[in-house]
Amino acid sequence: MAYQVNGSRVEWNPAAARLRELAEEMPNASVTEFGNVAVKARVDSRSTRSTYLVEDSANSRGQTITRAEYDRVAAIQDTYIAKSHMVVVDGYIGSDPQFRTRARLIMEAANANVAGMNTGRVGGGDDHPGSKKVTIPCSSAIVQGIVEGTIEWAEDPDFGYEVAVAIPGADDIEILQPRRLDARQGRMDEHEAMAARLKREPREFLNSFPGLDESLVKSLG
């Protein structure tokens, strides 16, 4: 049986628009020039130091806590949840329907920054008529291509790193290479100006630190 959530208020499986709204309400969130949500956060969970196995045996390896200690911590958590506005998202771990595992994500609404993983757009924000939304199926295909090693790569002419040219299930080359989208729409002047700015700004930032090894700045290309 799935873990029951007994908060003062619980939003069950809210739509993507609502999740984004919650993320934008966070004081450490901002909306980028491309219309995506960026959340500045400190990584202090889901790490080795904060992961424990519940095990009473003295022969266990790794970090463990006893069943009694688990019950104590769980009671504290349940008391906190009972007074809090919570958000619950049900889904799956894995993309294959035959092997995927059901999962439930439970978040406090005040820290529900899951929309920060939204797929976003290329070619501009929502208000730009020539932009394209990166759909969830496309984003999933990209992740699966990374895991399975099925992505074909080529060197990007603007920055010199590799970009995808073919991914199974992600058929729009203009999503994979926004430069092509800008070229087709006659926006190359805008594209080249943005590329120049994105190259210049990191150099200016690093150059603001006196004594920094010059090779670090040169590594930006």
What key phrases describe this protein's structure?
single chain, two-stranded antiparallel ribbon, Phosphoenolpyruvate Carboxykinase, domain 1, globular, 20% strand, 2 domains, 221 residues
Task: Describe the 3D structure.
The protein has 221 residues and is an alpha/beta fold. It folds into two domains: 108 residues, Phosphoenolpyruvate Carboxykinase, domain 1 (3-Layer(aba) Sandwich); 98 residues, no CATH class. Helices cover 33% and strands 20% of the residues. The protein is built from seven helices and eleven strands. The protein is globular. The model has no long low-confidence stretch (mean pLDDT 85).
Please render the helix and strand layout as text:
Elements (H helix, E strand, L loop, with lengths): L8 E4 L3 H9 L4 E3 L5 E3 L13 E2 L9 E2 L1 H16 L2 E9 L7 E8 L12 E2 L9 E2 L2 H13 L3 E4 L6 E5 L6 H4 L1 H7 L3 H20 L6 H5 L3
Parallel strand pairs: 1-6, 4-5
Antiparallel strand pairs: 2-3, 6-7, 8-9, 10-11
Structural class by secondary-structure content: alpha/beta
Taken from the alpha-carbon principal axes, the silhouette is globular
Q: Give helix and strand order, one letter per element, not per position.
A: EHEEEEHEEEEHEEHHHH
Instruction: Give the biggest sheet.
Output: 3 strands, mixed
**Order of neighbouring strands in the sheet with most strands:** 1-6-7
In CATH, the topology of the largest domain is named Phosphoenolpyruvate Carboxykinase, domain 1
Average predicted confidence as pLDDT: 85
Number of domains: 2
Number of helices: 7
| Estimated share of beta-strand residues | 15-25%
DSSP E strands, number = 11
- What is the CA-based Rg, rounded? 22 Å
> What is the distance, rounded to the nearest whole angstrom, between the alpha carbons of the first and last residues?
54 Å
- Provide the CATH superfamily of the largest domain: Phosphoenolpyruvate Carboxykinase, domain 1
Q: What is the CATH class designation of the largest domain?
A: Alpha Beta
Poorly predicted runs: none
